[in-house]
């Protein structure tokens, strides 16, 4: 940002110097006061128009850069969000698969223990 500020300050100084030079040149020129004032007014308007044009160009460049950066940030966010969702789905799937596997093993072992206990009880009768 300081580079842009320096550029703006240099541009403003150049415009101010040019305006001062034009005004001094016109004041010392051998013309009528009315004609000199008319020329000063025209030059002031020209300088104002140049400054407005330069401001507009700078403003457009800032808007373009903002749009570019905003678009890049959105793209990065979307990519990271997709990666996160995919990773979360993979983790959830792995946890569910592991749960199902161990649940089946526990149910199988429990059934075996129940059969063994029933068998022992039958033997005791």
Annotate the secondary structure layout:
Layout: H1 2-27, H2 33-124
Helix pairs in contact: 1-2
What percent of residues are in strands?
Answer: under 5%
Helix content: over 70%
Low-confidence stretches: none
From the N-terminal CA to the C-terminal CA, the straight-line distance is 93 Å
Pfam family, one: YtxH
InterPro entries: Desiccation-related_membrane, YtxH
Organism: Epilithonimonas bovis DSM 19482
Protein name: Gas vesicle protein
Précis, in short:
By secondary structure, the protein is an all-alpha fold. Helices cover 94% and strands 0% of the residues. It has one domain (34-123).
Please give a structural write-up.
The chain is an all-alpha fold and 125 residues long. The protein has one domain. Helix content is 94%, strand content 0%. It contains 2 helices and no strands. Helix 1 (2-27) runs antiparallel to helix 2. It is rod-shaped.
Tag the structure with descriptive keywords.
125 residues, 0% strand, 2 helices, Gas vesicle protein, rod-shaped
